[in-house]
């Protein structure tokens, strides 16, 4: 069923820094959960909700994002009408840059759309949801804006947007990372509003030189608009720092979390890569791991996530680690609480040890 709604995904967030992981790519393009990227979850939520027009607003470092999304065919968005649109900032010349140019492309995209409503989703929270109930609640209450939240309260290492909501469900106040929160309602970065209201908000932001649209910027106008809350009761993983990224990745190894995100009625779509199944050499031990296609495992792996095409040598002991696509690990390597970006080489007899609060992070293409 198609709904009269345009989807907007905010692919960047200047406040979120994931160390070496976000240097070569936008936040939404950061690999996650073995074979996915962060944007796959928000984009799949929109497609599964019947949204057929989606714009991805990105500020910079969007090569990986464009390569991953392509024409949108993996999400059935390679359409003659509507479909997937990537919205980079406008640049008027090589020597002139105005920060408000970042939003002009998004403003033009919204103005040209014919749908009545718009759903905006940030890229720093991962969950699986059908937005149909959110839309129904928004229309039923007649609110100007409806925000999705859960009851996580303050989450360490995250950018917490705490909502003070009265008995009628109206948002009275919005506070960022309060020391003493008045509520445990934490925004999930998903808003729904009318198209014309968003056009007005964007036009005002451009006029005042605002460079980065965030859902928090909109929510701070709760004294001007009727903003209502919609509670989401399933698991959600917040990614706002390298520590929270690591914790979110490890949370996927909990069957309750992985079942809620991956095994519900609505699938999570991603770019298809045809590779052979993972191969485990006889006698190795692989426990509580998420292993993707194309892996060659000749050592022991425990409580870890392996992306596509990872090669692990003989005598290795890999624990509590996240290994990205195309990484080659030599013989007798020991890793614990380590994140290794794409296409790295870890030479034999190397030993890297981190902690859950301070994981070791190896940048893309490095040789250790």
Briefly, what is this?
This protein has two domains: 5-262, Spore Coat Polysaccharide Biosynthesis Protein SpsA, Chain A (Alpha-Beta Complex); 279-362, Hexapeptide repeat proteins (UDP N-Acetylglucosamine Acyltransferase, domain 1). Helix content is 21%, strand content 26%.
Textual characterization of the structure:
- With 368 residues, the chain is of the alpha/beta class.
- The protein has 2 domains: 5-262, Spore Coat Polysaccharide Biosynthesis Protein SpsA, Chain A; 279-362, UDP N-Acetylglucosamine Acyltransferase, domain 1, CATH 2.160.10.10.
- The protein is built from 8 helices and 28 strands.
- The longest helix is centred in the middle third of the chain and has 13 residues, at 195-207.
List keywords for this structure.
Spore Coat Polysaccharide Biosynthesis Protein SpsA, Chain A; UDP N-Acetylglucosamine Acyltransferase, domain 1; 2 domains; alpha/beta; globular; 368 residues; five-stranded parallel beta sheet; seven-stranded mixed beta sheet; single chain
What's the helix and strand layout?
Layout: E1 5-10, E2 31-32, E3 36-37, H1 38-48, E4 53-57, H2 63-69, E5 83-87, H3 101-112, E6 117-121, E7 125-126, H4 132-141, E8 145-150, E9 161-165, E10 171-176, E11 186-194, H5 195-207, H6 215-219, E12 227-231, E13 237-238, H7 242-251, H8 255-262, E14 279-280, E15 286-287, E16 290-291, E17 296-297, E18 300-302, E19 305-306, E20 311-312, E21 317-319, E22 322-323, E23 328-329, E24 334-336, E25 338-340, E26 345-346, E27 351-353, E28 360-362
Parallel strand pairs: 1-4, 1-6, 4-5, 8-12, 14-17, 15-18, 16-19, 17-20, 18-21, 19-22, 20-23, 21-24, 22-25, 23-26, 24-27, 25-28
Antiparallel strand pairs: 2-3, 6-11, 7-13, 8-11, 9-10
Helix pairs in contact: 3-5
């Amino acid at each position: 069923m198609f709904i009269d709604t345009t989807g907007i995904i905010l692919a960047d967030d200047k406040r979120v820094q994931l160390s070496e992981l976000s240097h070569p790519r936008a936040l939404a393009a950061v690999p996650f959960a073995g074979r996915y990227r962060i944007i796959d979850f928000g984009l799949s939520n929109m497609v599964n909700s019947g949204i057929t027009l989606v714009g991805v607003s990105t500020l910079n470092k969007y090569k990986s994002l464009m390569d991953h999304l392509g024409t949108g065919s993996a999400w059935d968005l390679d359409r003659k009408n509507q479909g997937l649109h990537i919205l980079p900032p406008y640049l008027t010349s090589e020597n002139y840059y105005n920060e408000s140019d970042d939003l002009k492309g998004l403003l033009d995209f919204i103005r040209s759309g014919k749908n009545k409503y718009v759903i905006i989703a940030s890229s720093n929270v991962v969950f699986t949801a059908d937005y149909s109930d959110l839309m129904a609640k928004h229309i039923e209450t007649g609110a100007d804006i409806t925000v999705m939240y859960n009851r996580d309260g303050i989450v360490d290492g995250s950018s917490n947007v705490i909502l003070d909501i009265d008995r009628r469900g109206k948002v009275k106040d919005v506070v960022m990372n309060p020391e003493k929160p008045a509520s445990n309602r934490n925004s999930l970065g998903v808003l729904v509003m009318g198209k014309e209201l968003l056009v007005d908000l964007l036009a005002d932001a451009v006029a005042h030189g605002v460079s980065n649209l965030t859902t928090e910027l909109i929510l701070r106008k709760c004294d001007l608009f009727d903003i209502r809350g919609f509670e989401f009761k399933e698991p959600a993983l917040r990614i706002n720092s390298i520590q929270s990224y690591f914790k979110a990745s490890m949370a996927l190894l909990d069957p309750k979390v992985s079942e809620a995100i991956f095994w519900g009625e609505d699938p999570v779509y991603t770019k298809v890569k045809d590779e052979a199944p993972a191969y485990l050499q006889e006698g190795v031990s692989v426990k509580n791991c998420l292993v993707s296609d194309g892996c060659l495992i000749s050592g022991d792996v425990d409580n870890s996530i392996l992306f596509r095409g990872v090669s692990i040598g003989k005598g290795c002991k890999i624990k509590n680690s996240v290994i990205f696509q195309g990484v080659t690990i030599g013989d007798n390597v020991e890793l614990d609480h380590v994140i290794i970006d794409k296409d790295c080489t870890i030479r034999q007899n190397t030993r890297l040890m981190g902690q859950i609060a301070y994981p070791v992070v190896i940048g893309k293409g490095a040789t250790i």
